[in-house]
Structure to design on (605 residues):
């Protein structure tokens, strides 16, 4: 396999605050390593406050106090040169952003300027990267919209005139117009209705296959992961607890948390009783010792209370951080 | 059998804009439904955003008056509820559970105070010990206890626990009807199943009827007896929940069902099938 586009190793990013003499540390991302290959859709799943958003903020180098990166590195490989995104100048970062590394966010209104027509947002984001005179630039944008089956008329609309689904499509067009190698998608369809969601996911998939970009796709909706992603990482309480091919994880999850998550998914046409998980996700300012899942885990033993399980490869391409993984189920 | 709730050809029109540029938006358009007393059931209302499901819920809760049509609870028209005493008597019987428990509770106020105030005002419980017992009883019903909740603030609980407290609060006055507006859409996946199971249990054990509003067809299928599918303020299809969802008749219901992503990896691999 060729070199991965993104390599994250041993990443720790904590929120550190001290107010009124009390200092607090929230270990939102704790020792995460992963890599994403070219042309791959990598799904990131986890509940709220599991650290998903902090992880992608760190990957995008959108770090603001109190968030700090304590250890580890995030290395992108665009072309043949590796870049450590935390060790380059602001200027170099500005050149990479949007051209090589772009974002699709949950709230399209946060991206589109509400008081200006959509075309201005395209100018703001993409004009300097495409580096063509204005009329040519607009033609590039129009062609791109057409390729995504959007009427070029949307350029003349104000964001509020578009429906939520249409706005999200416009932000996808905006994120892909520079043909970036890597796209970060943070819950891009969570706010949409199911009917609209399906269309938007199809659009992301289509443009991704066409450009050959890699996507890290963050959502808590497991059904979206099942239908869209190639590989899947499961986060729990700031740690990556399982990672593997999406099909393998859905067929035979190895970490007890993942196993529960998948067993409890509601399926249309299924009325068999579902079990909820007792307890609540831990407070990351004061996580439990050892494995962070042990207070809720049905398979926990003494070692789980003392030591944090390391991420280990249990079968080819399938890793989990658990001392007592669920049994392997051959295909 | 007498009716618990009758919603008769109800519409709600909102006016937006000023005197000259006024626009009229019909949020709910001629909706009728009925729940029988003595036969508790979970009636699910599904639809996309803007389909009028929340407006319908607010009308049933008496928070918004209908523009036309009538809503009767136990034979009494909601429009005739006047004065705080009549209003309290109604609220005692019909209780809400909202979507986001972090917004439903004041972050600066201790959770037990909500429970005690509800016991005192809505359920008419007197005496400190009796009030505590009422709160504890309701919390036990949802799998918590007063010892766990006492003196704590909303931010100290997880979303799932807080939603349980919200449901416990609604149960204190022993209502005949709960109106739950998207009660699980803000709850994490690992806790969602237990809230949905709780609703099912309440119908069986306590005989509470529940109007469950959601956009999630999978939990609707799991939990409901009857279903109402709404679009643009109108009911497009209704009936026995599993019959409707197994074989939807209206084109919109069919579209809705076909848009639900199944949490299974397609056999051909992870490629998205549009």
């Amino acid at each position: 396999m060729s070199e991965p586009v993104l390599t994250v190793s041993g990443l720790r990013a904590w929120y550190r605050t001290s107010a009124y003499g009390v200092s607090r540390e929230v270990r939102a991302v704790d020792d995460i390593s992963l890599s994403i290959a070219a042309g791959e859709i990598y799904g990131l799943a986890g509940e709220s406050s599991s650290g998903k958003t902090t992880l992608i903020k760190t990957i995008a180098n959108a770090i603001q106090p109190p968030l700090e990166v304590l250890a580890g590195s995030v290395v992108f490989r665009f072309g043949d040169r590796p870049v450590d995104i935390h060790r380059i100048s602001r200027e170099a970062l500005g050149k990479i952003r949007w051209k090589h590394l772009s974002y699709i966010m949950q709230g399209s209104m946060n991206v589109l300027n509400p008081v200006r027509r959509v075309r201005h947002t395209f100018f703001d984001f993409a004009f300097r990267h495409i580096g063509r005179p204005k009329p040519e630039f607009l033609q590039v944008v129009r062609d791109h919209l057409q390729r995504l089956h959007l009427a070029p008329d949307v350029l003349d609309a104000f964001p509020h005139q578009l429906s939520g689904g249409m706005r999200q499509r416009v932000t996808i067009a905006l994120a892909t117009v520079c043909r970036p190698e890597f796209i970060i998608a943070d819950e891009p369809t969570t706010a949409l209705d199911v009917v609209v969601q399906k269309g938007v996911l199809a659009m992301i998939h289509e443009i991704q296959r066409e450009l050959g970009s890699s996507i890290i796709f963050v959502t808590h909706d497991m059904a979206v992961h099942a239908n869209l992603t190639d590989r899947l990482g499961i986060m729990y309480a700031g740690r990556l607890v399982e990672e593997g091919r999406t099909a393998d994880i859905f067929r035979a999850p190895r970490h007890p948390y993942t196993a529960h998550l998948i067993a409890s998914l509601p399926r249309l046409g299924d009325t068999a009783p579902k079990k909820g998980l007792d307890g609540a996700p831990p407070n990351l300012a004061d996580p439990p010792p050892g494995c962070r899942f042990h207070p809720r885990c049905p398979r926990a033993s003494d070692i789980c209370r003392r030591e944090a399980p390391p991420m280990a490869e249990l079968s080819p391409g399938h890793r989990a951080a658990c001392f007592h993984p669920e049994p392997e189920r051959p295909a | 059998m007498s009716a618990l709730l009758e919603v008769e050809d109800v519409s709600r029109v909102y006016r937006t804009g000023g005197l000259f540029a006024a626009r009229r938006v019909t949020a709910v358009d001629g909706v009728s439904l009925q729940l029988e007393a003595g036969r508790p059931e979970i009636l699910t209302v599904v639809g996309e955003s803007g389909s009028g499901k929340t407006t319908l819920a607010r009308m049933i809760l008496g928070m918004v008056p209908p523009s036309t049509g009538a809503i009767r609870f136990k034979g009494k028209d909601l429009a005739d509820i006047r004065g705080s005493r009549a209003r309290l008597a109604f609220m005692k019987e019909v209780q809400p559970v909202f979507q986001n428990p972090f917004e439903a509770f004041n972050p600066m106020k201790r959770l037990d105070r909500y429970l005690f105030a509800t016991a005192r005002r809505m359920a008419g419980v007197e005496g400190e010990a009796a009030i505590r017992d009422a709160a504890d009883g309701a919390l036990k019903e949802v799998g918590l206890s007063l010892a766990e909740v006492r003196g704590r603030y909303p931010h100290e609980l997880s979303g799932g626990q807080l939603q349980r407290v919200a449901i416990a609060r609604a149960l204190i006055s022993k209502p005949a009807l709960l109106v739950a507006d998207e009660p699980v859409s803000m709850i994490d996946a690992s806790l969602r199943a237990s809230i949905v199971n709780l609703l099912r249990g309440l119908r069986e054990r306590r005989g509470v009827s529940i109007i469950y509003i959601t956009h999630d067809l999978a939990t609707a299928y799991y939990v409901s007896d009857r279903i109402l599918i709404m679009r643009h303020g109108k009911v497009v299809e209704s009936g026995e929940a599993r019959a409707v969802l197994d074989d939807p008749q209206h084109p919109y219901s069919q579209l809705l069902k076909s848009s639900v992503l199944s949490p299974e990896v397609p056999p051909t691999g992870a490629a998205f099938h549009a």
